[in-house]
């Protein structure tokens, strides 16, 4: 019978480096932060500097006493749909509170994913009760605060302050002396705390026939801002634009 050749011994120095210490397979934290960085839910705003908004009243909800609720379509100037905004509120508040009604706005992208939520508690107008000023909380994703919009008391001109999640002042919005949109567009300039302009929101005049017959059902307005703003800042300016529409042009 043929005898098997013995297995040669392996020199000890071959494994010397392997037994010097435990081998760690952990990835450094800095590399982990790079590997698991997720895109922001608001990335649709990263390359835009202007948004066109169409408001439509959900007529069936009004007719069947399910509440007065709006739906907004947010598009780019080339008519690409960016967001659909759905209003939610208690069924009775729209019939009695009109534009001051408390509500939540659910902002959904073109895939139907909710990317932002806007919460507005009830508050009376500043000219009636100065202690009750408008306040919006903006979340993205829902549950994570990214900023607030706060109305400031002013005797004549509308005044709003936009803050980030840490309470730092980002922008001021100073409205015109006359907010009525009659034979003209109405602009609300936006600027940084140092006075540098960053954009404006505009309520468009669409003609006398529209104002008399269709304004309660459908309306158009828009917002323009600097392209290099962060997506969170653009989202806050969009939320402020919706608040201004409710305050002055929702009937």
Count of DSSP-assigned helices: 5
Structural class: alpha+beta
Kindly report how far apart the N and C termini lie.
Answer: 104 Å
Mean pLDDT: 82
The global form is globular
Q: Report the helical percentage.
A: 10-25%
Kindly report the spatial arrangement of strands forming the biggest sheet: 1-2-3-4-5-6-7-8-9-10-11-12
Q: Order of helices and strands, N to C?
A: HEHEEHEEEEEEEEHEH
Strand content: 25-35%
The total count of strands amounts to 12
| Major sheet characteristics | 12 strands, antiparallel, barrel
Radius of gyration, in angstroms, nearest whole number: 27 Å
The unreliable regions are 12-19, 32-37
Explain this structure to me?
There is one protein chain. It contains 5 helices and 12 strands. By secondary structure, the protein is α+β, with helices and mostly antiparallel strands. The protein has a 12-stranded antiparallel barrel.
Structure characteristics:
about 15% helix, single chain, alpha+beta, globular, 5 helices, twelve-stranded antiparallel β-barrel, about 250 residues
Strand-helix topology:
Elements: H1 29-35, E1 50-57, H2 59-63, E2 70-75, E3 81-88, H3 93-96, E4 103-109, E5 114-120, E6 135-139, E7 145-151, E8 159-164, E9 169-174, E10 186-191, E11 197-203, H4 208-214, E12 218-225, H5 231-248
Antiparallel strand pairs: 1-2, 1-12, 2-3, 3-4, 4-5, 5-6, 6-7, 7-8, 8-9, 9-10, 10-11, 11-12
Short account of what is shown:
The chain has 251 residues and is of the alpha+beta class.
């Amino acid at each position: 019978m043929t005898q098997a050749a013995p297995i040669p011994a392996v020199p000890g120095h071959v494994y010397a480096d392997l037994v010097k210490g435990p081998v760690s397979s952990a990835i450094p934290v800095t590399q982990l932060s790079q590997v698991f960085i997720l895109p922001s839910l608001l990335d649709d705003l990263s390359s835009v500097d202007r948004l066109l908004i169409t408001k439509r009243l959900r007529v069936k909800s009004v007719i069947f006493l399910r509440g007065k609720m709006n739906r907004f379509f947010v598009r780019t100037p080339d008519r690409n749909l960016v967001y659909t905004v759905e209003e939610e509120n208690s069924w009775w508040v729209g019939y009695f509170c009109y534009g001051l009604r408390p509500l939540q706005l659910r902002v959904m992208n073109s895939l139907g994913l909710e990317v932002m939520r806007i919460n507005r508690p009830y508050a009376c107008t500043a000219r009636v009760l100065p202690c009750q000023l408008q306040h919006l909380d903006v979340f993205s994703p829902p549950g994570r605060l990214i900023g607030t919009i706060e109305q400031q008391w002013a005797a004549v001109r509308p005044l709003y302050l936009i803050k980030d999640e840490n309470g730092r002042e980002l922008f001021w919005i100073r409205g015109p002396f006359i907010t009525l949109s009659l034979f003209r567009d109405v602009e609300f300039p936006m600027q940084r705390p140092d006075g540098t302009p960053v954009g404006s929101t505009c309520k468009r005049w669409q003609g006398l026939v529209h104002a008399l017959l269709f304004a309660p059902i459908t309306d158009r307005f828009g917002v323009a801002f600097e392209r290099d703003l962060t997506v969170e800042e653009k989202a806050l300016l969009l939320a402020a634009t919706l608040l201004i529409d409710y305050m002055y042009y929702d009937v």
